[in-house]
């Protein structure tokens, strides 16, 4: 229990200390007008209060990632706590804050546009492909997972899984085309309250229920995975949401379009990632405390982590309260799935230059995306999850490199993003080289050496392009000067 409570304390401490430093390094301007004010359109650009933005951000980024990921990450033992704690404070929360605030300074631009602006125009196409792939996978995963959770609490035979999936799709389709303050602003606060109550209930029962909560000690500081999977790089892909997740880079710009003051950024972006880290800690602790590694592995292998969620809720809270609490878990993937489809529609529309100002145009972009996603729901979940995880962390690397280039151009401390970017770049290269979904080289000395060479090569190219950009930045000072009127970028969105 000491490791669990100490980890949560460190997460909160990180918000007040390192989060404050990251905010200072960014140099906020509380008097600067935001996109929500300047570009207000009653649809995507809508001023909303800080508390509502924070709730939307938390539900957008959470999904089942900080639940399913830590459940599977618990197979490695207490060492998983370290990745959640330090990954969240020094990588994930920094990533979310920087992308949210850079977007805020660039009229709510999404990651592809930011990559084009700060990494070069040729990167826009690469990032668009990765962003669209990631969001499509996220949206599909967050149709399947809530459907399985809903099925687990319904009376047997009451409703078949395909019908539940169809109902979720209909809900997503309706909500995707509504103004953001109606689709998200009205229902997300209620969803967030349900989430917080159910999560707090699980955490409270863990602490007060006399459960044997494993601590990180000399004897447990090792790989405890029952099938012997390597900690690196597998753990860093198993637990993404709750540590660092590229999906968040597709969601933060949505909230940057509804934020009315730059002072809100640390609470909304950095703070909500810390909150997600707390959720991840609770579910990792619950999975380690209630199940032995082999039992947990069998439960996951028998279907999806949904079975573990169901068992945890019933064991900790009882049948009735546990079922109610599962609803709090269901709202996570439902809200993130909706946000994923909404972001995907916006990115695709921007890429193919179809302005989303009428319902026919909105449906012309949206419906084909739903058809593709529906087809993907028939793909094996575990295979889908592995591809999602890799695309997710590649997107995180891109987001951190965008943030690094931004800080370089501003002559500020860029190591706060370059260090986690370099580590995650090495991880994604090693993962795709070693895994069956990639080159299937296995994890050996050759794989690590090749991964190192590729990583160093990519970072060198990044450094070279950055030096070139720095030499020409004086002629493009208007483009990179945050103090210039925001209206300059209005035509770009």
UniProtKB/TrEMBL annotation:
Presence of the UniProt keyword Nucleotide-binding in the record: no
Alphabetic keyword roster: Cell membrane, Membrane, Transmembrane, Transmembrane helix
Transmembrane portions of the chain: 80-104, 125-154, 160-180, 187-207, 227-247, 267-291, 311-341, 362-381, 387-408, 415-433, 445-463
GO cellular component: plasma membrane
The organism of origin for this protein: Streptococcus urinalis 2285-97
Annotated membrane topology: Multi-pass membrane protein
Lipid metabolism listed as a keyword: no
Cellular location(s): Cell membrane
Designated name of the protein: Carbon starvation protein CstA domain protein
CstA N-terminal domain location: 5-167
GO biological process annotation, one example: cellular response to starvation
Family: Belongs to the peptide transporter carbon starvation (CstA) (TC 2.A.114) family.
Annotated InterPro entries: CstA, CstA_N
Signal peptide range in chain numbering: none
């Amino acid at each position: 229990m000491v490791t669990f409570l100490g980890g949560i304390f460190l997460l909160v401490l990180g918000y007040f200390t390192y989060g404050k430093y990251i905010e200072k390094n960014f140099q906020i301007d509380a008097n600067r007008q935001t996109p929500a004010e300047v570009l207000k359109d009653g649809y995507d650009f809508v001023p909303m209060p800080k508390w509502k933005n924070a709730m939307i951000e938390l539900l957008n980024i959470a999904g089942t990632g900080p639940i399913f990921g830590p459940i599977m990450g618990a197979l490695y033992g207490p060492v998983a706590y370290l990745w959640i704690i330090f990954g969240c404070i020094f990588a994930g929360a920094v990533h979310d804050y920087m992308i949210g605030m850079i977007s805020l300074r660039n009229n709510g631009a999404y990651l592809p546009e930011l990559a084009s602006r700060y990494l070069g125009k040729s990167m826009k196409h690469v990032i668009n492909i990765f962003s669209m792939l990631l969001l499509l996978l996220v949206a599909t995963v967050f149709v399947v997972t809530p459907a399985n959770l809903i099925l687990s609490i319904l009376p047997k035979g009451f409703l078949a899984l395909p019908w539940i999936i169809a109902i979720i799709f209909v809900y997503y389709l309706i909500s995707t085309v509504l103004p953001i303050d109606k689709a998200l602003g009205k229902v997300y606060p209620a969803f967030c309250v349900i989430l917080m109550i159910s999560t707090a209930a699980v955490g409270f029962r863990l602490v007060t229920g006399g459960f044997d909560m494993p601590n990180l000690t000399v004897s447990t500081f090792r790989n405890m995975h029952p099938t012997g999977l390597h900690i690196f790089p597998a753990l860093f892909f198993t637990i993404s949401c709750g540590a660092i997740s590229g999906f968040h880079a597709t969601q933060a710009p949505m909230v940057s379009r509804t934020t009315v003051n730059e002072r809100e950024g640390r609470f909304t972006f950095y703070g909500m990632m810390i909150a997600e880290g707390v959720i991840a800690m609770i579910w990792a602790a619950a999975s380690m405390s209630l199940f032995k590694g082999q039992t947990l592995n069998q439960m996951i292998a028998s279907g999806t982590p949904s079975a573990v969620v169901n068992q945890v809720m019933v064991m900790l809270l009882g049948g009735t309260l546990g079922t109610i609490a599962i609803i709090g878990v269901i709202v996570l993937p439902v809200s993130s799935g909706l946000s994923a489809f909404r972001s995907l529609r916006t990115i695709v529309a921007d890429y193919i230059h179809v302005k989303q100002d009428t319902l026919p145009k909105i449906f012309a972009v949206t419906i084909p995306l739903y058809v593709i996603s529906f087809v993907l729901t028939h793909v094996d979940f575990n295979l889908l999850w592995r591809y999602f995880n890799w695309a997710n962390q590649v997107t995180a690397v891109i987001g951190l490199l965008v943030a690094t280039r931004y800080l370089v151009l501003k002559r500020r401390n860029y190591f706060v993003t370059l260090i986690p970017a370099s580590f995650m770049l090495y991880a994604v290269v090693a993962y795709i080289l070693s895994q069956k979904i990639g080159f299937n080289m296995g994890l050996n000395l050759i794989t690590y050496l090749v991964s190192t060479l590729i990583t160093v090569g990519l970072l060198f190219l990044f450094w070279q392009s950055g030096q070139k950009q720095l030499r020409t930045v004086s002629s493009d000072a208007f483009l990179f000067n945050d103090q210039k009127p925001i209206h300059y970028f209005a035509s770009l969105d």
